[in-house]
Amino acid sequence: MERKLRTMLRKKNAKRAAFVAASAAFAGALLTQTAFAAQVDAYWHGTHAAVDNNPGSGSAGWVWVYGSTEYKATGGVIKYKLWDGSSGQLDANRGKTNSAGTGSDIRQFQACTNFYIDGYDYQTCGDWVTFG
């Protein structure tokens, strides 16, 4: 009887272990997919910048910017660096948006705001957001 009970417990534990392993693998796949496909946002003095390395539009990467409407702001900029070594920026006038596909995955980006103060153009930028 004891031998039969041990065999049943081993089978039950094997089934449980298989179920736990399959559940963990499935949860990991969902987490990876969701984290990779998510849009990432940055804000700086009223400018809103967003990127997505898996936008579902066929583009490898996508950038979007909304131009700040803060006092004396003239618009916003998203600056970005790609994994292929190239870089670029996309501008949006005050209160307007702009977007573009990048052709390659984005490695880093930052939001910047343009100002016109006392007859001079001035740009200030937030920190670079880096993808690992």
Q: Could you explain how this protein is built, in words?
A:
There is one protein chain. The protein is of the alpha+beta class and 132 residues long. Helix content is 27%, strand content 44%. It contains 1 helix and 9 strands, in the order αβββββββββ. The protein has one helix at 2-37; strands at residues 40-44, 47-52, 62-66, 73-82, 87-93, 97-101, 106-117, 120-125, 129-130. Strands 4, 5, 7, 8 and 9 form a 5-stranded antiparallel β-sheet that branches. It has a 4-stranded antiparallel β-sheet with strand order 1-2-3-6, with no helix packed on it. β7 (106-117) and β8 form a beta hairpin. The longest helix is centred in the N-terminal third of the chain and has 36 residues, at 2-37. The N and C termini lie far apart (56 Å).
